[in-house]
Amino acid sequence: MNRKLTDVFFKHLVSIVALFSVLALGAILLFVFAQGAMPFLTSTYSGVRLVAQRINEINVNGTTYIDHNTFIRIPKNTDFISIRFQEEVLEIKIDNNEKDPEKILSFTYNNEVNITYPESYVYTVSWPSVIQSLEKRIHIILPEPPYSPAKFLSGLEWRPDRDKVFGIFPMIVGTLLASFGAVLLGVPIALLCALFMAEFLKPKYASVIRSGVELLAGIPSVVYGFFGLMVIVPFVRTTFNIPSGNTLLSAIIVLALMILPTVITIAETSLRAVPLSVREASLSLGASKMQTSWRVVLPHANSGVIAGIILGISRAVGETMAVILVAGNSPHLTFNPLSSVRTLTSTIAMEMGYASGRHSEILFSIGVTLFAIILILNSFILWFRRRMEHTL
């Protein structure tokens, strides 16, 4: 009776834990996708915002703010703003129908002022002073309209600070080139190593090498990046006589080294799991050891081998720190392996710390794009595996 109650208790406990795990994962994915969709569906804010700098008391549209150090929010669709402090008067007319952010505002003032446009959708009005650091300033921040998904995915320029241009096509290309280059370089080497360890090497020596490979799989990516920065980057620079070795080729070599342990471990485990009877049947028909390994054992283990390749591709696509150190991080479209590139993950890692507003939302959208790329690649590989199994 007690054993039956224990079984029922653990059954329900496991069910509850699994349910909460699924719900938590779903909530995380929903949050990320919602954040990623926001820049394409909504404006950054509902109305104009003001920030007063070194102004103790200010009157905006009849409301007085004293020592106000946060945003002064103007209601949506307001077409006129009156600002007064001390003897200064600043009147701003807003054209809500204008699309060009540099023409949305027109100013009227009673004394000398400097009006600058430091970045898109931001104006700065300053009153000259003998000491520049004591200038009184008002920053006017306009709401940014929803960004175009087509411009986001196919744009060739990335200028988030000045012009609020967020084109990630060069980064998509850089990510795919670095990942596929690493797969083309690393996977054949990994499969040959796994085949050698599983079929030709004595078990005693194979266990030693297997332990070393598993140890390599646990090395942090920043260590691989540091190795690439100190060894591979100078090698590429010297070999090809170029100004900088931080190139796409360096990223490919580092990523290939990083996916080797993962692919070797999973592929070698799958090869060793092939029944001995399959090998004996092939050898009894007159096939050589190499023919048996390559044409019989490897096809029988294709499910595990493809799983290792999928994990290798996922690691290559999602790698961040090592790529930042060796790729050069230039957000320009290039197919030259000796040029600098930037990947999607590098952009998120380098800019998330200081991004705000639309820039921060776009970085979430890059994360969603990266998720979609990995999902598409893995789906294609799984479809290809099913087709191979059907053919065999």
Protein described:
With 392 residues, the protein is α+β, with helices and mostly antiparallel strands. The protein folds into two domains: 49-145, no CATH class; 166-391, MetI-like (MetI-like fold, Orthogonal Bundle). 57% of the residues lie in helices and 14% in strands. The protein has twelve helices and twelve strands. The strands form three sheets. Strands 4-1-10-9-8 form a five-stranded antiparallel β-sheet, with no helix packed on it. The longest helix is centred in the first third of the chain and has 40 residues, at 2-41. It starts with a helix and ends with a helix.
Condensed summary:
With about 400 residues, the protein is α+β, with helices and mostly antiparallel strands. The chain has 12 helices and 12 strands.
Question: What are the defining features of this structure?
Answer:
5-stranded antiparallel β-sheet; 392 residues; single chain; 57% helix; alpha+beta; MetI-like fold
Tell me the number of structural domains. 2
Distance between the termini: 51 Å
Taking the sheet with the most strands, its summary is:
5 strands, antiparallel
Our count of helices gives 12
**Percentage of residues in DSSP E strands:** 5-15%
Shape-level CATH architecture of the largest domain: Orthogonal Bundle
Unreliable parts:
none
Order of helices and strands: HEEEEEEEEEEHEEHHHHHHHHHH
Name the CATH class of the largest domain.
Answer: Mainly Alpha
Give the overall form. elongated
Mean residue pLDDT? 88
Name the CATH superfamily classification of the largest domain. Answer: MetI-like
- What is the CATH third-level topology name of the largest domain? MetI-like fold
- Which sequence of strands runs across the widest sheet? 4-1-10-9-8
Radius of gyration: 30 Å
User: Level of helix content?
Assistant: 55-70%
